[in-house]
Each structure stands twice: as C-alpha cells, then as structure tokens.
Description:
elongated; two-stranded antiparallel sheet; single chain; 102 residues; two-stranded antiparallel ribbon; alpha+beta; 13% strand
Amino acid sequence: xxxxxxxxxxxxxxxxxxxxxxxxxxxxxxxxxxxxxxxxxxxxxxxxxxxxxxxxxxxxxxxxxxxxxxxxxxxxxxxxxxxxxxxxxxxxxxxxxxxxxx
Length: 102
C-alpha cells in the first residue's frame, strides 16, 4: 500500500484505502481498525525529575551577553509563561548558570 499526501489527522488516517472488494467497495483503514492518538509506548526516552515524568528545556546564552542581564530576561520570560500554566504543571529550575558567576 502506498499513501499519497500527508497523514495529518485521525480522519485522514481512517480514510486510507486498504482494498477494493469483489463488489467494488473500498475497504478503508477506519473500517477495520480503531484509530486513536496517544503517547508512543514504550517511549524512546523520558525525562524524570524527582521520579516524576517531566519535560526538560535548556537555553544557551550567546558569548557576547552578560549572564546577569541574560538571566534576568529569561526569568521574566518564564514568569510570564508560568502565569498561563494549568495547576498541575510547574516550572522547576534544575540549573542556574548565574550562580557560578557571582
């Protein structure tokens, strides 16, 4: 089977033709399978923070910046971002470069 176009939605995946039966009816993937979206299992890699699944984000400062000014901008950006997070998600700092430069 070869599919043209992108498989960009569950609906599109359900519509993938598998076979034409003896009566000319097209049998589609959605006719023979339940199509759902879920996390890949097993995951190829996961981040654990204090034994809880998490997401790690890192940022690197360019060489021509002062770490104190750069860190201040990062803190402001993260504070603005954190305001819109749901109650069950938190930002947790794991590493702060500025502590090594003071």
